[in-house]
Input
Amino acid sequence: MEKSLKIYVILMCAVVQSFCAQSIRKNYQEMTDYERNELVNAFYELRNGPDLVADLAQFHSDFFNFDNSADPTQLDIHFNLPDEPERQIFFAWHRMQMFEMEQAMQALNPDISIPWWDSSEDQSTSSPVWNQDFMGQFNAAWVLNRNYVNNDINLLPTPQDVSMVQAMQDFLLYSDALERGRVHAGAHRWVGGAMPTPLSPRDPIFYLHHTFIDKLWDDWETANPGGSSFIITSMIRYDGTYVFNGEVLPLVDPDDIVDSKALGVFYAENQLADLSNYTVSNTHHDLENFYYQFVIDVGDNFLVPSNANCRVISVNQINLLPGFTAELGSSFLASIDAGNAASRLDNTTMLASRINNPNPFDYDSAILDKHAYSPTELSSEFKVTVSPSPFNSYLDLKIDGTNDQKIDEVIIYDISGHLVFKKHFESTTSYLIDDLNYLKGGVYIMEILQNSKLLKRRKIVKE
Output
């Protein structure tokens, strides 16, 4: 494609101190080599210091999916539909997770955006996404133990699966079908290793997969305008109380981010990014930056108000169309990045970090839960009450209902995955675990079994 810039505009040159970006997201196959390298570098860099990758993975694990019968006030992230629509935050929570990660990356390089991996089309273990200069390298470096489930692509969605779920018009039915079905859960289960466990965000491919899921939701909302709605008005982690690296994360109402453009996020496809119906606000940054290799159309109610700062960069072509407005007093720059191979990160340091300090993750028992994205594989009819909550010196287990299921083993791990209690006993519908005074206060994972089969996994809290 011939490189060209249809219109070049600078209105009131501005010096920008805090340099961050909004984003044009694209299929990873539409990224330049420069973008791929910077994305990989950013994943490594964010493992240093506060380690956002580990923090997001641990939070995702801690609040993955609870047995809500014991504590209906305890919020979680996954599998609340169809029975508990008042707790449904799957789409919105993961949109904020992608945004939080992308923001941290853009603080390193404003040209970075998280691309998507379409697992319905790109299903080979020899796909470029798994190349050792891209996502493939993290498997060994971070001890992710991917296994691609013996190349069983039947776990992955087909394009027809995607079309069928995207054709659904009721939001709750759509959200439930996409989350539980192959379109979402399939890639988690197929990649293996960390991906089918609650600690799936340890694997960088998680972010490429969930950017694809977010794109599908964006496409669905475009086809069904106003169709998405949430009952809950804030979300765990994004409730105005969670602190990471000394900063309190904002309170987010999921209804406020139904439109991805509320976060300044656009999805490019087929070598075209359409920036339209958007007002630059500089809410998240002093400069909003949009970077894409191919054609960028800016127009149709794209507004840069007075005192706002925006930059649009393409490697090939930018078109400023009727409907685009940059008000007097704004700062707007449209430019062609002819030398896009230059890196704003210290690649020498980054490469040394990859080789000498790959930084594998600490052990956590949640990494053993290989069926986290197949919740029906645990007994859906098995109901057990565990009390008190939180507990001090004892736990009382009682099976609810009239079924014939019984329990004969209880195992408790601490949050780091160390076994702290294990007890076999005669099959029963109730069991009292006493003398737990020796446990320190904190969070534990309890597994309840019958004939060595896991029936239920519960999070419990010791006072």
User: Anything to note?
Assistant: The first helix runs from residue 33 to 45. Residues 1-20 have pLDDT under 50 and may be disordered.
